[in-house]
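Give me the 3D structure for Mitochondrial cytochrome c oxidase subunit VIc/VIIs domain-containing protein.
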Amino acid sequence: MSGAVGKVVKPQLRGLLQKNIKRNIIVAGTVAIAAALVQKVFVNDERKRVYAEFYKNYDIEKSFHQIRNKGLFDSCEPDN
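Predicted structure for Mitochondrial cytochrome c oxidase subunit VIc/VIIs domain-containing protein (80 residues):
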């Protein structure tokens, strides 16, 4: 019966905090890099694409005349 009982492993008493801090810094760095990549791919690149599409079709002269004809500019009289 005494042969079935295994040897009790001693708990780690020294260096436990340093080990946990090292692991937490590595995990935090990995998560931060992953979050930055996700932000770039799914937010920034999509926003750049939408802005590029908007300005490809944007006519500033047409927009200016619409705003001027609504009477929103103080320095320009409407065409009406």
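The chain has two helices and no strands. Let me know if you want a second pass.
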